[in-house]
Design brief:
By secondary structure, this protein is mainly α. It has one domain. The chain has 3 helices and no strands. The termini are far apart.
Length: 91
Amino acid sequence: MLYAGIITPLTAAAGWWWMAQMKDMDHWQMAYHKWLGISMAVVAVGLAIWRGWLYLRHCNPGLAYLIVATFAVAALIVQGDLGGQMSFGPD
């Protein structure tokens, strides 16, 4: 989670920078992709801080942490699918 909390905001920033460079980005998926990317960056940082706090307290992650992490992985799958659709087409 530490690495995800570091790299995900950088990846989202790179995506926004890349999008500003591109001219043909009027795909319907782009609106979802960019806001999901920002949301994932915030969630990844939050999960990393949460996990670090649990680690320092010598606690195992509880059910709430695992549920949030599961939703984060599901969002990552959707994010990848949207990016793939825009890059390679919906088929």
